[in-house]
Amino acid sequence: MAAELIRIYDENPAPKHINKVVEVLKKGGLIIYPTDTIYGLGCDITNVSALEKIAQIKNVKLEKSNFSFVCEDLSNLSDYVKQIDTATFKILKRCLPGPYTFILPGGNNLPNVFKKKKTVGIRVPDNNICRAIVNGLGNPIVSTSIRDDDEVLEYGTDPELIREKWNNLVDIVIDGGYGDNIPSTIIDLTTDEPEVIREGKGSVDIL
């Protein structure tokens, strides 16, 4: 089945379009959606068959995957992350929503497939479309970048070209305008001092 291309505007995402995307996710569908960095490939965090499809596409074992959890805000954190200290929380508050992925200690309530994970990557993108989808879904989406780490390609920023490449792999490609080619900055907050794992779009001066 060919992927459907849906135009959604970041300033004011149309509820009917968001609801359509949410319905597809609830049924185990895969979507490609805009973030504040590169377009992401995502599914419902609670749907194991969808998670397995993404792992297969990315050619990784699901239990060993390093997918990010995309949240609407910090209120879900306690569901997936162990108790964090005030200093760590202040960093998150300062940087999110924004182009960062924070590595945090995994909590006890992780979905079964992620139970063995010691750490999780948390994203709260500064993008109204993906936050509205997460809000409608009622839980995070598991996400991974659509690009391969060793290549920066034109198709990664143009929704029309993304659809051409991913047409038979996903159910919906959301056209939220041109994407970015710079990934999120990854910061590990699981040790005493914040450690920058990858410098991307988010400035590391905020630490």
Largest sheet composition = 10 strands, mixed
Q: Classify the oligomer.
A: single chain
Helix/strand/pairing category:
alpha/beta
- Sheet with the most strands: spatial strand order: 1-8-2-3-7-4-6-5-9-10
Residue share in helices? 25-40%
Low-pLDDT ranges:
none
Summarize the structure.
With 207 residues, the chain is α/β, with parallel strands linked by helices. It is built from six helices and ten strands, in the order βαββαβααββαβαβββ. The chain has helices at 15-26, 48-57, 77-80, 86-95, 128-137, 159-166, and strands at 4-7, 31-33, 40-44, 68-70, 100-105, 119-123, 141-145, 172-175, 185-188, 195-198.
Notes on the protein architecture:
This protein is of the alpha/beta class. It is 26% helix and 21% strand. A 10-stranded mixed β-sheet has the order 1-8-2-3-7-4-6-5-9-10, with helices on both faces. Helix 1 crosses helix 5 (128-137). The radius of gyration is 16 Å and the shape is globular. GO terms for molecular function: L-threonylcarbamoyladenylate synthase. Residues 15-202 form the YrdC-like domain.
